[in-house]
Amino acid sequence: MSAGQPAPGFGTAYHPEADLPPNGSGMTPRLGQLRGLPRRRRPAMIALSVALVGAGVLVSAGLYPRANHQVPVVLVTAAVPAGAVITAADLGTTTVVAGPGMQVIPGRQLQQVVGETAATALRPGTLLAVSELTTAQPPAAGQVLVPVPVKPSELPASGLFPGDRVMAVATPGAAGGNASAAPVLTHAIPGVVQQVRSTPDQDGLDVVDLLVPADAGTVVAQQAATGEIALIVTRRGS
Fold first, then answer.
1. pLDDT at 97 over 90
2. How far apart are CA 20 and CA 30, in angstroms?
3. Sign of the C-alpha dihedral, residues 132, 134, 137, 138?
4. How far apart are CA 176 and CA 100, in angstroms?
5. How far is CA 219 from the centre of its chain?
């Protein structure tokens, strides 16, 4: 091993001595210095990194409103039959992430909804939509509203409620009159309960507002006037 070489295992880079100058001068040459290598730039990798960072920012911006920007909306808290007037007790508010296409009513408009009419049957726990409201009061086209007085004992024990579907039938002799008198109502007429007055009138009768087809309104009213009429529940709610 020559004197100009370091011992094996020396922990530095080995730099060989430079050749002596050709003029034979005895100047001691300086050891060569290892220059830093230039960094190789990869344009494609840089562009990919920039794109990934940009995509991450966009995704975060899209998820932030969904995760943290919930909005208050109107919630149905009680069953409301179609055609019934909506009260404050029927509504509440909740917060949801309202995505595109969702039909909801902002919670700040809750009081504006009170007093509107339900265009369809409203179910508890559902979000209220504008399409489920109407300003039109019953009866609808093709219907008439007939008040039907009935004895409390002739109502179901569970009561009658708005939206109940019933069949109005004649009950000859039920009022103590002439059993041989032909009833005005000769066949059952379908109807929907619009409202029930649970406080009996001066005759001790409850009054049921009944929506029936327009062409049957007259005979139902005439039969109701005799007191010989019954309402048979066929389905609860509407």
1. no
2. 11
3. negative
4. 64
5. 43
pLDDT of 168 higher than 70: yes
What is the three-class DSSP state of 211?
strand
Cβ distance 195 to 221 under 8 Å?
no
User: Is there a contact between 211 and 195 (Cβ–Cβ < 8 Å)?
Assistant: no
- State the pTM of this model: 0.52
Query: For residues 111 and 74, what is the distance between their CA atoms, to the nearest angstrom?
Result: 10
d(C-alpha 214, C-alpha 221), whole Å: 11
Query: Around Cβ 205, how many Cβ atoms within 10 Å?
Result: 16
pLDDT, one tens digit per residue, over 173-193 is 765 555 556 788 889 999 998
pLDDT value of residue 140? 80
Q: What is the mean pLDDT of the chain?
A: 75
For residues 168-194, one letter each, b for 16 or more C-beta atoms within 10 angstroms of the residue's C-beta and e for the rest, the string is bbbebeeeeeeeeeebbbeeebebbbb
| Rounded alpha-carbon distances, angstroms, from residue 14 to 10, 17, 32, 39, 75 | 9, 10, 10, 23, 80
**Residues near 97 by beta carbon (within 8 Å), at least 6 away in sequence:** 66, 69, 70, 71
Per-residue pLDDT of 32-44, as tens digits, reads: 444 554 555 566 6
Q: What is the rounded CA–CA span in Å between residue 225 and residue 180?
A: 17
The strand pairing partners of 36, in sequence order, are: none
Give the residue from 89, 163, 161 showing the smallest Cα distance to 119: 163
